[in-house]
Amino acid sequence: MEKLTLLYSRAEILERVSEIAKKINRDYRGKRLLIVGILRGTFIFLADLIRQLQVEAEVDFIGISTYELGSQSSQQITLTKDLQVPVSGKDVLIVEDILDTGVTVDFVLKFLQQRQPASLKVCVLIDKKERRVIDVPVEYVGFDLAQGFVVGYGIDFAERYRWLSEIYRLDFA
Ligand code: 5GP
Ligand code: MG
Q: CA–CA separation, 5 vs 11, rounded Å?
């Protein structure tokens, strides 16, 4: 049986999103930003975030698919959707829902770095630091989470629960 427990309320989330936006507004003042959202878990976070920005921002999305390799415990990661706008010379901010092992963000960082952006930084809503396997630099963090599997606010479990306005911990009893 699945059990949902409220973890972050709508108000708490919006407070953290505002804090991140303030920092981005300071750091990128007078610059033009290219925001790259990793599909699909970021779409609600990104929508709230960009509406608090006071810097001119382009928005595009990248699609990633991860799957376990049968026998080994290693992960295979592939691109399912490329960006539609050029990256070269731009100040790029990658936006991700959850930073876990770091495999996904590491892949996207390396992928975008090849296109020679002027700068490249990472923003995540939830950082599960303790679970990191690959060390990735992250500039903007909403919440630090030590443990648990979360859903809601755009984040799914098997395509469910994205529509929830708050973030919940999902337990399998
Ligand atoms: P990483 O590549 O850092 O291990 O994993 C990042 C991806 O794993 C995230 O984009 C997210 O899709 C998924 N993920 C990690 N933790 C959670 C979680 O608690 N809940 C959900 N729904 N997805 C998670
Ligand atoms: Mg994801």
A: 16
